[in-house]
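Observation: inputs received (chain + 3,4-dihydroxyphenylalanine).
Thought: call the complex predictor directly.
Action: predict_structure
Action Input:
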Amino acid sequence: MSADAKKLEAEILAAIDAADDAAALEAVRVGALGKKGSVSALLKTLGGMSPEERQINGPLFNVLRDTIAAAIGAKKTTLEAAALTARLAEETLDMTLPVHADAQFEGRIHPVSQVMEEVAAIFADMGFDVAEGPDIESQFYNFTALNIPEAHPARQMHDTFYMQAEEDGEPLVLRTHTSPVQVRTMMEGQAEKSGPPFRFIAPGRTYRCDSDQTHTPMFHQVEGLVVDETTHMGHLKHTLEAFLAAFFEVENIAIRFRPSYFPFTEPSMEIDMQCHRDGDKLVVGAGDEWMEIGGSGMVNPHVLRHAGIDADKYQGFAFGMGIDRLAMLKYGAPDLRAFFEADLRWLKHYGFVPIDVPGLAGGLSNKSLTTLTSAK
Ligand code: DAH
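Observation:
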């Protein structure tokens, strides 16, 4: 290589070395390899050379150009890595910093979600699992397996939303209650050989074609099921009393069973809890009034058999309660429809601060009860 070319190479390599950011490096690149760059100019001199000179210098100049290009590429990688490291160091977040005071007041947990969490926490403490099933359900699970055969009047009782029928099948339904999860979960347990015994709750959305101050087309229930060899009504009564006392955060709460009828239980009972009114306040756990909060009973052997369980060996209890109703009673929200209107002012008033996760250890809810006072 000519002395000039060598000198040029040394100069450019020094400039690359000295470039300490992307812009400086780009300037070096344009100055060397750009259209009017020094290396490009050198390459252009080949045109004026004799064939012999060109044969010698051509490859040398090309090597020079490639060397410079490679050096620029390498430097670019180094600079980018350094820039990333610097940026990461600069943008470090201190995760141990406390939440900004205002942040926790921005969002709110809906009372229904809060109550679901509370219910799950209380039953988990009693050894219940949480089971789930689909909102769009087959008539088999919603009715037939629960001992509600076709043409049974109870199918009409439920004001069912039917889906469009598939060509070859019967229409699916929006589940009218959480009871189908009983059968699904027992069948799964049988298949996986994880039960019986069974002990679970199933909270979730339910649907009926109904709308007034105390009914919305979509609402929430929590189902409970216990199946074992010796499960009896005493267990049911204690479970419900223990649940209600924990949920309403009172020492004791008495319940009363009223005879009723559900196709999936035998006997069937309505659950009433003890309460009274003090002005417009509802006081639970004392007094001589009773408020209905759900249905219950001993699982009908037909339901066990539909789930493939030996009904001569196993028996169980079941219950179903309205979650929205529990929320209204505990937090004093008078109109059910407001629960589903997505009015932020309502949510700000009745909602819960997200970082206050309900648990038995810290008290279930940190919210002061507006219309509920505990009877101690
Ligand atoms: N599924 C019933 C309803 O929605 C409520 C119910 C009653 C559930 C009795 C039960 C039960 O598990 O045992 O009206």
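Thought: report the result.
Final Answer: The two ends are 101 Å apart (CA to CA). The first strand starts at residue 129 and ends at 130.
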